[in-house]
UniProtKB/TrEMBL annotation:
Membrane spanning stretches: none
UniProt cross-references to PANTHER family, sorted A to Z: RIBONUCLEASE P PROTEIN SUBUNIT P14, RIBONUCLEASE P_MRP PROTEIN SUBUNIT POP5
Keyword check for Ligase: no
GO terms for biological process, alphabetical: tRNA 5'-leader removal
Family, similarity comment: Belongs to the eukaryotic/archaeal RNase P protein component 2 family.
Function noted in UniProt: Part of ribonuclease P, a protein complex that generates mature tRNA molecules by cleaving their 5'-ends.
Enzyme Commission (EC) number: 3.1.26.5
EC top class, as a word: hydrolase
Catalytic activity: Endonucleolytic cleavage of RNA, removing 5'-extranucleotides from tRNA precursor
Subunit structure: Consists of a catalytic RNA component and at least 4-5 protein subunits.
Record organism: Methanothermococcus okinawensis
Keywords of the record: Cytoplasm, Endonuclease, Hydrolase, Nuclease, tRNA processing
The protein, known as: Ribonuclease P protein component 2
Coiled coil segments of this chain: none
Amino acid sequence: MLKRLPPTLREKKRYISFKILYHKELSESEVVFVVRSAVINYYGVWGCSKSNPWLISYNHPKGLLRIHRNELDFVKSALIMFNEYRNHPINIIVLGVSGSIKKSREKFLNEPHEKYYKVIQRKKRIKRDISKKCK
């Protein structure tokens, strides 16, 4: 069995809270495509792999993105510079940057922090309710 990496060897992360202004609602997969293409267009494939953008959550129109700490300025500028998606104008506004998910949700997205086990319980409850309705 492999051992976990000690905290000193793990990559340092930052969390970018953002807001997307677009004429219609985007799905999570479309937001991932928009973010990746913005970083690739501005910074290149090598820069995209260095910054490693990862969508943590997205509730229209706000979202949370995890990136590598050293590439913060490049990713912020890439998101700001991206201006067109499917021949329609799009604006990505960076609301703020934080070092933890909890603080970025509370401060920039105005969402209360929910404990992880409560999220899992809620998802199980929703699945159970859906399976009851299907029967």
